[in-house]
Amino acid sequence: MMKRLFLLIVTLALCPFAQVNAQKLLAVSYEDSLYSPSMNRYMRYSVILPPGYAETSERYTTLYLLHGLWGNYRDWITNTGVVQYASAYRFLIIAPDGGNGWWTNSKDVRYAKYEDFIMNDLIPAVDLKYRTLATRHGRAIAGLSMGGYGAAKFAIRYPGSFFYAASFSGALSAISSLEEAMRTDDPNSVYVKSRTDAFGATRSNQWTRNDVFALLDSADAKQLPYFYVSVGHSDFLLDASLEFGTKLRRKGAAYEFHETIGTHDWLFWDREIRTVLDKLERYDPLNVK
Residue 24's pLDDT is what? Predict the structure, then answer.
């Protein structure tokens, strides 16, 4: 028996076919770029291809994964096991670069049109270059902190573009807390200056059109995508997620809310992206679990 087992192991190790099949079980990640008219420059993004992408003609659901403040397009790949987790699913994952721009068209900074970059440049380019399901039902969006804000905003403002949106530790009070931040914090800190660059330093229509709470108030709940909202109970942004969850409930939107052990860190976000990949795989709008 031991001899047979040894021969089997040696055969599998030496067999090129077995090695190729093993490689097909893994997702593949790399960097890509496109010229963005909205940003007037080339913009980089990370790509995770599902297992066996090159060997099929299948089209895939795309998950857009947004980073947080001080982050970049490499963050999700570098700081979580998302590539490993993606090997168990059939998703194309795109992680774009958003600088510190709050996924927003800046009021004052020229060629800092991050919202237009995502909606007008990146998504059409990805749909053209990769085998995506280029419809609302083939597109999801998720993000952490600033990216959680961005994912929520895009989902509410463009409900015809996404069927699922996830916010992890979302900085959902980016607008509602800005006036207080300008009064009490260092105006030159990245956390304050990045927001005033994006939204302006005084209350205006730019604030209203980028406030996820104001957007939710005027949205049609029946048209909204499904929301997954999570936050650690030791996270300094806990209250913002709680308020957002309450508004979703009162609005009658389809959503789930999770307050769990954790804080504002990669340990929490690593766990959450793994959870959402599994939920996306099993998502059924008629029987959400």
Answer: 52
